[in-house]
Design brief:
Radius of gyration: 18 Å
Oligomer: single chain
Shape: globular
Largest sheet: none
Strand content: under 5%
Number of strands: 0
Mean pLDDT: 93
Distance between the termini: 34 Å
Number of helices: 6
Length: 184
């Protein structure tokens, strides 16, 4: 049942995001009420993913080598940095159009490198696929991109400091949940 709930959750999350891209006229007709309903569907999707992931039986697909933890930690930090760059206009913000989705892709790849069980492959692979397809859909719908203005390397550094702080919080939460992210 856990695997089914996990897949349903990913589908709800992705589908809620893609409605605007795949059926823009229908989504517009729903107005603000539709926005609330889609938000609820996406939140329920996240809840279903968490419950499904936690209840999926363990099925090992591959055993990741220990050194992958270092690469994964770096990728997660990079992912959080890109997410921070979506709010702080560093020079990288003007080079990468989809900063949040790029962050999700780095985060998902990092987790795929260190988790060789089926539930993790479905969860993180599904979210990686969602991010890749989202970039494609957004680029198809709107090829034009207004690059952020007033960028500076100093803002890149500020975004990195913010990312390191957020990364520390995420690492703490992982540890609290019983998933120690750093190798011994």
């Amino acid at each position: 049942m856990g695997y089914l709930l996990l897949i349903i959750g990913i589908t709800m999350f992705a589908g809620g995001h893609w409605v605007r891209r795949l059926a823009p006229a229908r989504r517009a007709a729903w107005g603000d009420k539709g926005k609330g309903i889609l938000s609820l569907i996406m939140v329920l999707g996240v809840v279903a993913m968490v419950i499904g992931y936690r209840n999926a039986g363990f099925a090992s697909v591959w055993v990741p080598p220990a050194f992958m933890t270092h690469i994964a930690n770096l990728l997660v930090l990079i992912g959080v940095w890109f997410y921070a760059l979506s709010f702080i206009n560093g020079t990288m913000a003007a080079r990468v159009r989809h900063k949040q989705l790029t962050g999700v892709k780095a985060w998902a790849v990092a987790h795929l490198l260190v988790n060789g069980d089926l539930a993790s492959i479905i969860l993180f692979g599904g979210l990686l696929a969602w991010a890749v397809v989202s970039v494609i859909l957004i680029n198809r719908a709107n090829r034009a991109w207004d690059r952020p203005q007033n960028t500076s390397p100093a803002k890149d550094a500020i975004a990195l400091v913010v990312a390191v702080g957020l990364y520390g919080v995420v690492a703490y939460i992982h540890t609290w949940l019983g998933y120690y992210p750093f190798p011994m």
